[in-house]
């Protein structure tokens, strides 16, 4: 009687897996037969934990927490890392507090890069691995009063796009997924910085109201998760996957139209002109 060899279980790490895109991605990977480790700053407080997902503590603002987490999963041979967790922030550039900027970049960029650096050696040594950075279409189509958030997501894309050329020869592929407007309730959790007497208040209020409306009408987190799953399992992932907000059309327009025209269209769509 011939024996049937078992297919090795693939392991995925999803940061920020307690809600929104992270939770949907953890569910999609679990359904695709991955062993999924989902992170949260306090894994014991995750509401309605997903069946099959192993929740572990990870604070991306703490190097000690990142190193401890990486050490704890070092024997699992992580096949896929989805860098998703982060903060959404808005405010006039002139009024953004320095400590808020530092926190944002620590959470949205530097923490993910540090975690990626710690997990890459094992992937490279095995000759396979996928790292997916969850960015935002705002990195490709910047919006007023979102400069800090835009810059953090553009930084992630920059790391992924450049470093993919370093790692591809070792069978490790880096890619970025840029969602457009998503209906995840993020509007309620977005941090806002605007002075009571700010000269930007009227334009800021108009822009944020339009942003909230677009997000309430946006695509589901599940749809974004399916794109992330595709990026994580493709034999040769694309450098960039965009989903939502009529991505194919707007990216085609971005290639064909002058940058100033695109900027003007963005401004009008958010009530700024």
Automatic annotation (TrEMBL):
It comes from the Bacteria. InterPro entries: NAD(P)-bd_dom_sf, Sc_DH/Rdtase_CS, SDR_fam. CDD domains: 17beta-HSD-like_SDR_c (cd05374). Keywords: Oxidoreductase. The keyword Oxidoreductase applies. Belongs to the short-chain dehydrogenases/reductases (SDR) family. This is Short-chain dehydrogenase. It comes from Williamsia serinedens.
């Amino acid at each position: 009687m011939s024996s049937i060899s078992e297919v090795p279980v693939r392991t995925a790490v999803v940061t920020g897996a307690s809600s929104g895109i992270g939770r949907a991605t953890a569910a999609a990977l679990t359904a695709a037969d991955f062993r999924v480790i989902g992170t949260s700053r306090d894994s014991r407080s995750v509401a309605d934990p997903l069946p099959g997902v192993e929740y572990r503590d990870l604070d991306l603002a703490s190097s000690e927490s990142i190193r401890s987490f990486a050490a704890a999963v070092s024997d699992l041979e992580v096949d896929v890392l989805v860098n998703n967790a982060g903060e959404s922030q808005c405010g006039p550039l002139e009024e953004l507090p320095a400590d808020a900027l530092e926190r944002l970049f620590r959470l949205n960029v530097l923490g993910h890069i540090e975690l990626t650096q710690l997990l890459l050696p094992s992937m490279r040594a095995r000759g396979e691995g996928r790292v997916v950075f969850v960015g935002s279409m705002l990195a490709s189509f910047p919006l007023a009063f979102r400069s800090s958030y835009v810059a953090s997501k553009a930084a992630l894309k920059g790391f992924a796009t450049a470093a993919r050329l370093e790692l591809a020869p070792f069978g490790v592929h880096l890619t970025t997924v840029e969602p457009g407007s998503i209906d995840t309730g993020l509007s309620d959790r977005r941090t806002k910085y605007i002075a009571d007497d700010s000269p930007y208040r009227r334009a800021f209020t108009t822009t944020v109201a339009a942003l909230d409306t677009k997000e309430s009408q946006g695509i589901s987190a599940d749809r974004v998760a399916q794109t992330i799953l595709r990026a994580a399992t493709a034999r040769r992932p694309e450098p960039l996957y965009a989903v939502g907000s009529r991505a194919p059309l707007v990216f085609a327009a971005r290639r064909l139209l002058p940058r100033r025209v695109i900027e003007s269209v963005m401004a009008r769509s958010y009530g700024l002109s």
